[in-house]
From TrEMBL:
The chain crosses the membrane at residues 66-86, 106-131, 137-159, 171-192, 204-229, 277-303, 315-337, 357-376, 382-403, 415-438. This is Major facilitator superfamily (MFS) profile domain-containing protein. One of its GO terms (cellular component) is plasma membrane. It comes from the Eukaryota. Keywords: Glycoprotein, Membrane, Transmembrane, Transmembrane helix. One of its GO terms (molecular function) is transmembrane transporter activity. The lineage of its organism: Eukaryota, Fungi, Dikarya, Ascomycota, Pezizomycotina. Signal peptide: none annotated. PROSITE patterns: MFS (PS50850).
Length: 443
């Protein structure tokens, strides 16, 4: 039977500990299933998912899959929160270490440039105890490097557990995390920094990261189908004494492990530079991402230095951006629900990834509108509400473009979605790291 032939609810359940600890788990029904092939080296049995397979990630209940989606989204939110929460207590950090604004902004850029979740948690805790500004910047870079895992892996997990017609809603939920995180970071960081000092901003992030790390380790099992089927084939081969392989393993027979690892490491770069769609969408997304992080360096200058706001009140200026993001997510939900009705897409084979893109056209118009509006209204002589309101169309447009691109890339490169998102994240991070460094020269 072909993979995912049936979407009916499964009445068979794999033991929880087996899900977490044994990727090759099988029951008697799986062992006795009639697989194509004859079990010889020349014609091995080809392992695939069985009817209502209890180990198929797409056959788990919606409640379980939404719980997994929520966890990876929370992990992504935490990393995104850590990028911008750092900027809120900027005056305290610079005063503590007698650092210049450029050196302080390196802490923001280094974190984004880095982008193992456990190491992210430990290094963020180390930031709270940093004795020098140099140590703080270095630990921020390393925390960003290890914190990149949910940004790239989460998209692959969602592709593993959601069929096409349901994945759009899950991707919107996940995509909202790296958008809300940066916009709420200065608000949360501002109030914590004002009340308890800048070190507790990093302490709070370390605690939140620890909760995410522990929860994901205990709750989310392996979801990558080729890995699961390969382990299953090995297990049944030992039990039955015949040759069983997964379909992917059949296609890759003869490849050395070194070659496979090299291919996995090179694939994101190949997709980035040899796939024009990936390259163009990634460049556009990187420019927008850099502009977003330029805001995080510019807002303390515009509202705290020029208008004299305190760091806790200054963080509230980002609520305009958060409002635009929230509005954009509501619109994206509505559009996605309408565009993925069963009457239009009755099967995975009929699915067209381009159905994700039309709403990005609206976002492409809203983004420059918000940028021009903010540029011409942030002077202290004008009421603060005018410039804060300018963030709404920018945040709204950013969400529509970001979600459209993320959904499209995952749908178009399903099995390689993690590699595509890794390539996208690499270029985004470079732009996001460099844009804040020249902010003070233009504000």
């Amino acid at each position: 039977m072909d993979a995912h032939e049936s979407r009916l609810p499964s009445h068979r359940r794999a033991p929880y500990l087996s899900l977490m600890l044994d990727n090759g788990w099988v029951d008697q029904d799986i062992i006795n299933h009639r697989y194509p092939g004859s079990g010889t080296d020349e014609d091995p049995f080809i392992i695939g998912w069985t009817h209502n397979d209890p180990r198929d990630p797409m056959q788990f209940s919606q409640a379980v899959r939404w719980a997994w989606t929520g966890l990876v989204s929370l992990a992504t939110f935490t990393v995104a929160l850590a990028t911008s929460a750092y900027t809120a207590p900027s005056r305290q950090v610079m005063a503590t270490f007698s650092a210049t604004k450029l050196v302080f902004e390196l802490g923001l850029s280094a974190f984004i440039l880095g982008f193992a979740y456990l190491a992210f948690t430990l290094l963020t805790a180390g930031c709270a105890a940093a004795p020098t500004i140099q140590g703080l910047v270095i630990m921020r870079f390393l925390a960003g490097a290890f914190g990149s895992s949910p940004l790239t892996i989460a998209g692959g997990i969602l592709a593993d557990i959601w069929p096409n017609e349901q994945r759009g809603l899950a991707m919107i939920f996940f995509s909202s995390a790296p958008l809300f995180g940066p916009s709420l970071g200065p608000v949360i960081g501002g109030f914590i920094g004002e009340a308890a000092g800048w070190r507790w901003v990093q302490g709070f992030l370390a605690i939140l990261g620890g909760i995410c790390c522990l929860s994901m380790t205990m709750i989310i099992p392996e979801t990558f189908a080729p890995t699961l089927l390969s382990r299953r084939a090995e297990r049944i081969s030992r039990i039955q004494g015949q040759i069983y392989i997964s379909k992917l393993a059949k296609d890759r027979r003869g490849k050395a492990l070194r070659e496979s690892i090299k291919e996995a490491l090179v694939r994101p770069w190949v997709l980035l530079f040899y796939e024009p769609i990936v390259l163009l969408l990634t460049i556009y997304m990187a420019i927008l991402y850099g502009t977003l992080y330029l805001f995080f360096a510019a807002f303390p200058i515009v509202y705290q230095e020029h208008r004299g706001w305190s760091q806790d009140i200054g963080g509230l200026a980002f609520l305009g951006l958060a409002a635009g993001i929230a509005f954009g997510i509501l619109v994206a939900l509505y559009v996605t629900i309408r565009s993925t009705r069963p009457s239009k897409h009755n099967s995975d084979e009929a699915w067209n990834p381009e159905v994700r893109l039309p709403m990005s056209l609206v976002g492409c118009v809203a983004i420059p509108l918000g940028l021009f509006w903010f540029a011409w209204t942030n002077d202290p002589s004008l009421h603060w509400l005018i410039s804060v309101a300018a963030q709404v169309p920018f945040g709204f447009g950013f969400v529509l473009v970001y979600i459209s691109i993320q959904n499209y890339l995952v749908d178009a490169y399903t099995i390689y979605s993690a590699s595509v998102l890794a390539a996208n994240a690499m270029l985004r991070s470079i732009f996001g790291a460099t844009f804040p460094l020249f902010t003070s020269d233009y504000c």
